[in-house]
Amino acid sequence: MFDHLAGLSVFAQVVEANGFTAAAGRLGVSKAAVSKQVARLEDRLGVRLLNRSTRRLGLTEAGRDFYERARRILDEVEEAEQAASSRQVSPRGLLRVNAPVTYGISHLAPVLPAFMQLYPEIQVELVMNDRFVDLIDEGFDLAVRVAALPDSSLVARRLWTARHLVCAAPSYLARRGTPKAPADLAGHDCLLYSYLASGDEWRFTALDGKPSNVRVAGSLRSNNGDALRLAAIAGLGIIYSPAFFVGDDIAAGRLVPLLEGWRTLETAVHAVYPPGRPLGAKVRVFIDYLAETLGRTRPHLSAASPAPPA
Fold first, then answer.
1. 225 is a domain residue
2. Is residue 221 located within the same domain as residue 75?
């Protein structure tokens, strides 16, 4: 039984580290020892769990199913050990978190030090990029996503919601004039965000509930909100962005809010994690901490109320 658990643990480390070499480094053993453990596990099961190539390590269909079950067992064992140990009074272990670059830098990074002081036995690995990662294939415990969520099997908890703001630099408005209604944006240089759910159509609602959507165009498109924010500050065009990205710039006068009589899109911030396994203590306390903290630290950035508890 102990050999079986060891095999499960090594296999999970290979999946979560995305490779034999990285897993060996985490475990403090040789790559050959890790490879032998996984091969022995595959032989015992009579099925291939991993597709090995020089470019990338991937799970087979059987491997994906087996990993989810193995991870569930390992989490339960870890929680049982924590509950039984009189020395273990707080969550512990490596917590791998994925987040968008701009949001990760501006919102997650500032609140991490306080979290790690609260839970000194949790080690956090924060990986930031602007693509939708596969949590299981890439070994993440959870992701923070600032977007409309696509249909998926992931479990999501809403942490915060904020409305979009339309704004531009004083220099741009002095040069090009100030739009008075959404339709006026068609004649302006607009800064385009590649991952906006509505594409190049900016959506507004009048106070009487009538929608007013406008297709916009501009000379700059990016998949990174900070690049567009800096371009807006430089006077390159008009930006349509969640309030928590541009709130500081508006407060400082670097950007001027526009079309304030119109309601705009709301963007939700979610924590997402794989289903079908117990929510480990380290993941649970981190999600609870984010739900309690995000937006409160700089409330003028949110322009909306925090999400209710799940």
1. yes
2. no
Quote the domain boundaries for residue 218: 161-265
d(CA 280, CA 222): 36
Q: How confident is the prediction along the chain (310 residues), in pLDDT tens digits per residue?
A: 556 778 888 888 888 888 888 888 888 888 888 888 888 888 888 888 888 765 667 888 888 888 888 887 887 777 666 656 544 457 888 899 999 888 888 889 999 999 999 999 999 999 998 777 778 778 888 999 886 665 566 788 888 777 889 999 999 999 999 999 999 999 999 999 987 877 889 999 888 888 889 999 999 999 888 899 999 999 999 999 988 889 889 999 999 999 988 988 887 888 988 876 666 788 989 999 998 887 554 444 444 433 433 3
pTM over 0.70: no
Q: Scanning the structure block, which residue is given the tokens 């065009």? A: 237
CB under 8 Å to 140, separation ≥6 — which residues? 96, 97, 98, 127, 133
Question: Based on the structure, what is the number of domains in the chain?
Answer: 3
Residue at a domain's end among 34, 60, 84: 84
- Does residue 177 share a domain with residue 273? no
Instruction: Tell whether 306 is covered by a domain.
Output: no
**Sequence-separated (6 or more) residues with CB below 8 Å from residue 41:** 7, 8, 10, 11, 49
210 within some domain: yes
Q: Is residue 143 located within the same domain as residue 287? A: yes
Give the tokens for residue 122.
């949790």
